[in-house]
Fold this sequence. Notes:
The complex is a heterodimer of chains A (270) and B (316). Chain A is mainly alpha-helical and 270 residues long. Chain A has helices spanning 8-35, 53-59, 62-95, 101-109, 116-129, 136-159, 165-172, 177-206, 209-214, 221-230, 236-269. Chain B folds into two domains: 40-86, no CATH class; 91-311, MetI-like fold.
Amino acid sequence: MSDFNRSAPVEWGLRAYLLLIFAFVFAPIAASFVFSFNVDRFPSLPLGGFSLTWYQQVAADPLVWEGLRNTLIAGITVSVLATALGFGAAYTDFRYNFFGKSLYLALALLPPTIPVVILGLAMLAFLANIGLSGAIHSVIIAHVVMCAPFAMAIIRLRLSQMDPSLEAAAWNLGASQWVAMRHVILPFCRPALFAALFITMAVSFDEFAVSWFVSGLNETLPVKVLGFLQGQVSPKINVIGTFVFITSMTLVVLAQILLVKRSTGRAAGQ
Amino acid sequence: MTAPSRPGLAAGRVPARSETPGQVRPAGVQPAPERERKTVSVYGLTFSLPMLLWQLIFFLAPLLFLIALSFWTVRNFRMEPDFNPDNWSRMLGRSVFWEAYLRTLLLSASAAIVTSALAFPASYAIAFKLSDTARRWAIFLMVIPFFTSYLVRVYSWQIFLSDNGIINAALAPLGLGPFPMLNSDFGTMVGYLTLCLPLVILLQLFSLIFVDRNLVEAAHNLRCGRLRTVFEVVVPAARVGLTIAALFCFILTFGDFVSPLYLGGGDPPTLSILITDTTKSGQQWPRAAVVALVMIATLLVIAFAAVRFAYRERGR
């Protein structure tokens, strides 16, 4: 495209602006990483000196370990449940047409649009009323509600790349529906299933608001961070943030690799 | 639910975006007759029911329960089922509530406008000025913040914005400042941007990518100026995405209690702070439910208006 509307200053201005935006987005992430290794309690420039004190302090804090344990239990359970529910709903949407389908889909996909404070309050009140609040399973229940839509979206996307007649072909070759599910649908969805597992785990790993409402004494790590935030300045937050960032990014990159492998696997497989 | 039809050869099924459009179905393969019956099969229910039940019980029921809860009474620190409009008249009769309501509405509306305005040049640059590879990288980088803790980023901003924080320390040698930035609406807005900017950029981007380049080219050929092309060709063509992005920003900031509390100071409170305070400081859950329901009603109205605006038939 070469036309009179291109001008170098505008092009470069836009690019510089884009860099500025990226700087804004990544400044807090980078700062928390840098200051987690800084020796001073009160973060300021210039940096005080490299130290692992805060890492040692975090490692020695039993509250952090307890939070981490709760986070891991919740994260793993949530990812499995949410992925299973999400797969079922995605497959239902892929294969069936029925009365009230749009309501079904709305119900399945709506949770992320409800503000977390409202969801948190509603869950707390409801679960307390049926005697299920204040425990790790309350967090799991709430997180599955919030994560299942993501799992469903990821798996639905994968299913939409599948030729619907593949399944029908399996039936015509004598496979029962269950057998076709096991040997056609599930293998086709495998990369998306793993991607959904990792993404939902990452979402559950970071979620703090609803957990804060429903967890009671069984606080997850992000809820502990919220607690630290209420207290005084604590470089521990930076350490935990760096740790959570690295964990989440590992999960996301794993999911990404699986989704990329999907396309190559597809080229080879079909 | 449902009589899931058993589509023989994918007959009743909307063909999902298949690799080879217009593919011809192999001849001679007929659906077995029993597969055409419309029955509720165990097989179908195995996959459709879990999500339905889970979201009915743990998503819809809690939200509906909020309505009932808002009519309960609290006696001696215990909640009792009741049908008492007292909570409603108390909460809605307080000036504190309406101040918080107005404040939240204003903050979220400004956040939606400011974020959209700041995001647009960036998404425009990503969509129109970058190479394919660079664009893919930009999208990947914009996704990363979703997987970092929002709390940690807010804490990080405290380090930047506090009176002896990084920004003021950097400005001091120049003889500027110190500027009080924390515990102000400016701080709240920085937090809101942290929360929404990546999402808004991505949503804007996905609508800008699909803007027909020929339209832009045509406008240029007709000697339409650069800015005018953006505002009269690109923005209208991407209106749906731009509106939805602003709507998401509004919804997210409307329900966020972290930025207004830890960067904005929390005084005067927003509605979400009102909910967290009322919930955790005692047993006044019914009153918190009133606030939550007012919030839901507001969001529904705004979402409905935004969607109508987004999909409205183009004038002319």
